[in-house]
Amino acid sequence: MRIGIIGAGRLGTALAVAMSREGHVPAAVYSKRHASSELLCERLGIGCVNSLLYAVASSDTIFIAVPDSQIEDVVQNIIDCTEDSDIRGRVFFHCSGAADSSVLEPLRLKGGHTASLHPLQTFADRENGWKGLYNIYFGYEGDINAQGAAGEVVNALKGSMIHIGRDDKALYHAAACILSNYTVALSWAAGEIFNKIGIDSATGVKALMPLLEKTVKNIEDLGSMAALTGPVSRGDWGTVQRHIDAMQKSLPDISRIYRVLGELTLDMAVKRGDISPEASRIMRGLLSDKTKGCMRCSDVEEKDGF
């Protein structure tokens, strides 16, 4: 497999480094920022040509690892700078989670094999991002003729591949964003609450890390439904009322987040059969009321912790 990398950002760098470590040293790297291409080539120990034509012509499998908004432009630039023979028979992957493979249609029409191959992972660190590509899932959508190359990449990284329908890409990516991006946002919100009570946000988030790690472990071991704990799941509307009252006074924006997620948590608790219809009714009224919730208190024993 001769790999070409288009885009030398965090994901492109991670792919290049990880595949290089598995014996598939990229043949070429192209970036619109020459310095980025040069830096990655130096890290890989290859010469820096930084030519889009060269990246395509010297490779049989090309990764387009650029922001979603730039994929169409990159595809058009490839069409403009190459001959049909440079495209025919080559495999082109884009790495977007939300965009489907139709964005690569001009390459497919010229004989390329096209697909999206998206690593279900987050890449916040350019230096060590490659480590996160191992033992993960990759979402695949596209041309059946590109599956062999996709499988080779996934197997090299000891991963697994899941097949996504073209019309389902946006929902697939939304699920990933909810779990990854919004967890980060929630950690920020929790830090803001700590900051409000005189504990700096960094210390607050650090204090919550064991709780988060145990929660993730419970989800992994038990599944989401069985891992659910807390006052909403046990029908403790008195505690929820105190939470909402306190946040409504000092952190109303975070209070809105609490209510929305509380309603989702309540739906899970009802499906699990944990709380009575009366407790569910009171809790739902409390979480949906934007000004004042029910003032009744719960006699439910707190058994399951946070």
UniProtKB/TrEMBL annotation:
<dbReference type="InterPro" id="IPR036291">
    <property type="entry name" value="NAD(P)-bd_dom_sf"/>
</dbReference>
<dbReference type="Pfam" id="PF10727">
    <property type="entry name" value="Rossmann-like"/>
</dbReference>
<dbReference type="Pfam" id="PF10728">
    <property type="entry name" value="DUF2520"/>
</dbReference>
<dbReference type="InterPro" id="IPR037108">
    <property type="entry name" value="TM1727-like_C_sf"/>
</dbReference>
<dbReference type="InterPro" id="IPR019665">
    <property type="entry name" value="OxRdtase/DH_put_Rossmann_dom"/>
</dbReference>
<dbReference type="InterPro" id="IPR018931">
    <property type="entry name" value="DUF2520"/>
</dbReference>
<protein>
    <submittedName>
        <fullName>Putative short-subunit dehydrogenase-like oxidoreductase (DUF2520 family)</fullName>
    </submittedName>
</protein>
<feature type="domain" description="Putative oxidoreductase/dehydrogenase Rossmann-like">
    <location>
        <begin position="2"/>
        <end position="119"/>
    </location>
</feature>
<feature type="domain" description="DUF2520">
    <location>
        <begin position="136"/>
        <end position="263"/>
    </location>
</feature>
<dbReference type="InterPro" id="IPR008927">
    <property type="entry name" value="6-PGluconate_DH-like_C_sf"/>
</dbReference>
